[in-house]
Amino acid sequence: MRHLIDPTNLSVSEVGEIISLAERIIADRPGYSQVCRGKKLATLFYEPSTRTRLSFESAMLELGGSVIGFSDAASSSVTKGETVADTVRVVSCFADIIAMRHFKEGAPLVASQYARIPVINAGDGSHSHPTQTLTDLLTIKREKGRLDHLTIGFCGDLKFGRTVHSLIKAMSRYEGIRMILISPEALRLPEYMLHEIENQKQKGVEFREVRTMEEVMPELDILYMTRVQKERFTNESEYERVKDSFILDPEKMRAAKSDMIVLHPLPRVNEITREVDNDPRAAYFRQVENGKFVRMALMYTLLQWNEGARPAAVPDLGPGLFIDNTKRCPNPRCISATENVDRVFYRVDDACRCAYCDAKI
Ligand code: NCD
């Protein structure tokens, strides 16, 4: 069975196919209005969302399918103590495809091990968000005409911003990409992503870390702004200290290229002033609409790929993964810290990492 848990679950050519299909859907919406007739999407959202859930739901409705689900963990059996594994086994009897958002890192991976239908990760903790990445890639393709030879600045909360982690992984696979990481020291990328970029550097992807937006503005093709993720801080005063680290305003936009684009996964708090919305380079609301089209393309594709597929009796762990129930993942936000799941790991560069959240053991 094919799922989408991490952006690298799709090859570069598969990402290309999904983006082209999204472009064909945009050009011929009536042509795709019945292709998922009779199919049901289950949206299992254990964490707040506006855009992502509505985007998934409207995508399935526009394909002619229907939608069931919950938008709040409090209204599901999780309050009675049901595990993710059991919930998805149950939902597999009712739906054809699942989109899951969860506050625990790795929860969608657990879901994919137990579901009998394809699972899409709609955001897990501060870990990853592969469908936002597809949204970002489609937007970049439509706005810039290409996905290679681009300089992209990631600005804001690179530590907890899962959209940044997934987009860095995905963009690293294209040629001539330069990435500039703009964050205060306290919001630098987490350890597993710093390790990932060290590996990417060896393969020729350029990375640079800076502390101000101004010093790099003129060289950017894309500025990817992010919100400081208040809900992930354990210390309120630390959040207060860093919350307004970067504010994009028309003054700063003056230093940017005339064809630079500004992306933001939204919701925005203070990091982009309202006046920037009127600048034609502000692409974040166009990005939202692309999210629906790319999710239409993704769900249609996953349903086709999985047509007739049967899950293995024992979940297929995937290449390089192994179970060792004597080891523990040290990350308290990892699903393996609270659910009784098999502890799955992989080795890279002599280190052992948790397969659910990538934390180093
Ligand atoms: C993002 C998310 O949930 O990670 N939003 C989204 O899906 N569009 C970004 C955020 O919450 O800041």
Write a structural description.
GO terms for molecular function: amino acid binding; aspartate carbamoyltransferase activity. By secondary structure, this protein is of the alpha/beta class. It folds into 3 domains: 7-129 and 289-305, Aspartate/ornithine carbamoyltransferase (Rossmann fold, 3-Layer(aba) Sandwich), CATH 3.40.50.1370; 130-287, 3-Layer(aba) Sandwich (Rossmann fold), CATH 3.40.50.1370; 321-354, no CATH class. 32% of the residues lie in helices and 16% in strands. The strands form 3 sheets. The protein has a 5-stranded parallel sheet, with helices on one face. A 4-stranded parallel sheet has the order 2-1-3-4, with helices on both faces. The model has no long low-confidence stretch (mean pLDDT 95). Residues 51-52, 123, 129, 132, 162-163, 227, 229, 265-266 line the site of N-carbamoyl-L-aspartate.
Keywords:
four-stranded parallel β-sheet; alpha/beta; 10 helices; binds N-carbamoyl-L-aspartate; 361 residues; globular; Rossmann fold
Shape-level CATH architecture of the largest domain: 3-Layer(aba) Sandwich
Number of helical runs? 10
| Strand residue content | 15-25%
Roughly how many Å is the radius of gyration?
A: 20 Å
CATH H-tier superfamily of the largest domain: Aspartate/ornithine carbamoyltransferase
CATH fold category name of the largest domain = Rossmann fold
Distance between the termini: 29 Å
The CATH C-level class name of the largest domain: Alpha Beta
**Percent helix:** 25-40%
Low-confidence stretches: none
How many beta-strand elements? 12
Helix-strand category: alpha/beta
Mean pLDDT: 95
- Trace the largest sheet across and list its strands: 7-6-5-8-9
Domain module tally: 3
Note the main sheet.
5 strands, parallel
Bound compounds = N-carbamoyl-L-aspartate
Task: Give the SSE order as H and E letters.
Answer: HEHEHEHEHEHEHEEHHEHEEE
Gross morphology is globular
